[in-house]
Amino acid sequence: MSLSIRNQLSGTVTSVAEGEVMATVKLRLDGGRDLTAAVTRDAVEDLGLHEGSRVRALVKSTEVALATGPVEGLSIRNQLPGTVSAVTSGAAMAGVKVAVDGGELTAAITADACADLDLAEGRAVVALIKSTEVSLAAV
């Protein structure tokens, strides 16, 4: 199946904590970083997720925020350090590609934010992704 979601990182489930409706699924990305996804309990059951399951984490580019360094005191658990590999900026929006361990992410941010952060190829950044914005696909 082809998807419009370009941000796809492969990994292995390290733990599943199920609640009554939702579950948090922690995974180790192939590049060695950890990522957390908050998905429905039904999704965990339908996908057969358990420790050791191979998955692909999917994140829309509009759900990736960028910072110029690690951020403390923030509820966003997923912070992936990387390096800007390309910037395409228009009048209103910019697409910023970020090389992270084990893959690449694209962030769709405003052109103003891109300019304010002085984002350019080679710049170190941290990709911030809320766990509720990570979808999972069984591999």
Helices and strands in order:
Layout: E1 7-18, E2 22-29, E3 34-40, H1 41-47, E4 54-59, E5 65-67, E6 78-89, E7 93-100, E8 103-110, H2 111-116, E9 124-129, E10 135-138
Antiparallel strand pairs: 1-2, 1-4, 2-3, 4-10, 5-9, 6-7, 6-9, 7-8
Strand order of the largest sheet: 3-2-1-4-10
Q: If you compute it from the alpha carbons, what radius of gyration comes out, rounded to the nearest whole angstrom? A: 15 Å
Could you tell me the strand content as a percent range? over 45%
How many β-strand runs? 10
By DSSP (H or I, 4+ residues per run), the number of helices equals 2
**Proportion of helical residues:** under 10%
Shape: elongated
Q: Assign the structural class, choosing from mainly alpha, mainly beta, alpha/beta, alpha+beta, or little secondary structure.
A: mainly beta
Order of helices and strands: EEEHEEEEEHEE
Average per-residue pLDDT, rounded, comes to 97
3D structure, described in words:
The chain is mainly beta. The chain is 9% helix and 53% strand. Strands 3-2-1-4-10 form a five-stranded antiparallel β-sheet. The two termini are 12 Å apart. 26% of the residues are buried.
What keywords describe this structure?
single chain; mainly beta; five-stranded antiparallel beta sheet; 2 helices; 10 strands; 9% helix; elongated
Question: Quick summary of this structure?
Answer:
The chain is mainly beta and 139 residues long. The protein is 9% helix and 53% strand.
